[in-house]
């Protein structure tokens, strides 16, 4: 297959030769290895890559992925990281309008008619920057003679991949893991990996989040080997019966074999203390399921995020251990009953925040230390819930939320704000995805990536269809998708408020943003159909968070009021050297000669961009503490 | 032995001087206010205290248009005219004691209490007045009462206070009140207690703006170690204490005026810190928080321009030696 640059222009081409999305479990060779979480089957490709930058597709280095290509002018770039923060390409912050505002007139493909595909919009875009990445690798011992795939955890915004000169595949969706099978093209000794990253594609219309606009390989990249028998996918359900004591556990497995699909799988549940609770063994098959009913299970919640450990041990038909897959399991009962959401029989109160991934040095390439600190701040401020605004986060974040009992609204990577709301007015004349069939599959793919990757996390309570993308049949299809694959969680979408024609079909909850308390009260007093939550409230821009008590008072009066998520967790601003004093300074939108911009609107956090708390955090700690 | 029951009063040609053990205060008729506040030999004033009406625009203010609606108060914060001065000695109003009226006094005048009231007229349309009355007793204690005269047609106030500009930046301050930065609509999380603040921190909001407010304060003690007095080699820390009168007050203690904060788009644009800007507030507008593009502060936390406002507080005299 040949890579086509025209894929950038086609909303119907968003994944080529990608492996199907699956759960975020990891395979290990032995139990001991699983305990250390360092798998011999994994080889990191983070670090220095050779790199060439082009200001537009016309100037990109054609054929740079060929082994004999002259790459002597390539420079070096750190992966993960944003191309712009390395000095290539202009930094820009903009909120709702598209980044090309005032520079290019654009309507999304097919939004003005099925006969208007808008060819060349991005493939011939004179400002669509391109990063050409090259990396040599030799397989580590643990990966040799096995099936090997490559995982890109985040590449913004469209990427083409080659190995040893062979085209491997294409991916969009900046914030979901993209995985490709490298096995057919691997060679002994050194291999040449090449990635071409385009800043914009039709995905740009779907990724109009209120954030700095970056490009590049900004999350980790790794090679992953599959042993002879491999757990491809794992779907865990761990719920409680209505007595809130009895655990119902099931795990569905999909397995693959390099040659012969034969052997056995032992599934064992351990307590947090390591005591074996239950075990079963089944013959290996392409698909298999195990189930257990467990009396007196330890419930998982914010205060006591108790996690059992599931261990899957895969043996070949000679009885040799081939793969070990561990996964943390939390039992909880989430239900919508009499129009109120309950967790383990208690009304759910969301003391939440919206959290963009942000680091003032590294942009959205956040570190483990950033995440650990965020979890500590959450705990100290009695924050019990997080909305992953407005894309899937690094997978470690979901594990940390499992461990620390942080309830998650897991958002699909979707925001098309600029296509339907202009200068505060709802004007959806070129809205995507709307009900356009040409855009529907792309957003369903984003939903599937979100679901498959994070479906096993007890912390995830809500699948959110994305943010501010108006309403339409495409959103209905997404809502149906989530409900079809996952009967154990709720769907969330704020667009339910924007177009009531879809009210019954795109969200299990009434979700609004920035409604004053009196308007929320009016909803709650007038035969509300669904429980209410603020997907965004208390806009903490600058010196703010006044009047929070009026929201918290609604908790006392209305059981159907379930709290919400403060906007937002951390200011988006970047450390630069002040050109006058030479001292470090935090800069925001418009400070990079970036126009059109939304300037300081990037800074709405409970924390300053350097992760120190704003004074208002003590107010949040007080009120959230009262309902913790 | 110093007189501890009577104030020494100097009926000058340009000023009224009051002194006692460890203090000397000068009220200047030409400058229209308290020009000098010296305790233990240390000057606390760089310019006369003035009514404070403005706060540096918050992001929420900008979004909901409050700064535009309240813009006349920015002018009043920067410019005002002292249009009347009244002096009361031991409860008796006296004619303003300037020449030749002051020829009837001597070099040995004393009093138990003296109240000097300055009336400031704002450049707003319509204009209004603020009276600032300083009552001094023999211990050097000043009780300061501020009266704002409401006028129909005046917009809501961003703030109402009295601003002291000290000659050099403070080392820090201690206060009894609520922890952290608090506002009328954001103080539930403030922990009551005694708090120390090192230096004069400006809350580093991305765009510098109103910050550093401390609500419900019983007292604040500001510590400096430097002066502008060329003959004073001493760098030992010294302090000035403000206490509540009938009711707790709000204050901020920053190195900048609201206008300096207002003009900066980034922290690094703020000038080098040279002063202490200590403002005592009788009324503080809430900061709001519903959104940053239109929603107003909750009504309970507005400051009406068309009704009277009064507040008072005390500056403690020097510690008796």
TrEMBL record, chain A:
SUPFAM superfamilies xrefs: (Trans)glycosidases, beta-Galactosidase/glucuronidase domain, Galactose-binding domain-like
Keywords: Glycosidase, Hydrolase
Top-level lineage group: Bacteria
E.C. no: 3.2.1.23
A matching Pfam family: Glyco_hydro_2
EC primary class: hydrolase
Residue intervals of the Glycoside hydrolase family 2 catalytic domain: 335-626
Keyword Ubl conjugation: no
Glycosyl hydrolases family 2 sugar binding domain segment(s): 43-227
Keyword Hydrolase among record annotations: yes
Coiled coil (UniProt feature): none
Reactions it catalyzes: Hydrolysis of terminal non-reducing beta-D-galactose residues in beta-D-galactosides
Residue ranges annotated for the Glycoside hydrolase family 2 immunoglobulin-like beta-sandwich domain, each copy included: 230-332
Family according to the record: Belongs to the glycosyl hydrolase 2 family.
Name of the protein described by the UniProt record: beta-galactosidase
Organism of origin: Levilactobacillus tujiorum
Automatic annotation (TrEMBL), chain B:
Boundaries of every Beta galactosidase small chain/ domain copy: 17-316
Catalytic activity: Hydrolysis of terminal non-reducing beta-D-galactose residues in beta-D-galactosides
Pfam families given in the database record: Bgal_small_N
Regions that span the bilayer: none
EC nos: 3.2.1.23
Keywords: Glycosidase, Hydrolase
Name this protein carries in UniProt: beta-galactosidase
